[in-house]
Amino acid sequence: xxxxxxxNIEKKTGVNMKEIFELANSLQNANFKDEKTVRxxxxxxxxxxxxxxxxxxxxxxxxxxxxxxxxIDMNTISKMINNKK
Length: 85
Hints:
Pfam families: SpoVIF. It comes from Heyndrickxia sporothermodurans. By secondary structure, the chain is an all-alpha fold. The chain has one domain. The chain is built from five helices and no strands. Helix 2 packs antiparallel against helix 3, helix 3 packs across helix 4 and helix 3 crosses helix 5. It starts with a helix and ends with a helix.
């Protein structure tokens, strides 16, 4: 039953659930004060979501997370990518 649920999500979103789980696991112990780590996470979410992020937007997101101390989770990054200008 659970497997069918994830397969349906994959079909509707085009996002591989294995990649989502791997990303979620990597977020658990990530150092969000480290710019390189945050950039890597942003790039990974962008790749998984198939939503390119410009260098300028990536810089803004990194500043918001690292320098401004913004809390981070998958939803936060997803919103930032979807609301890019």
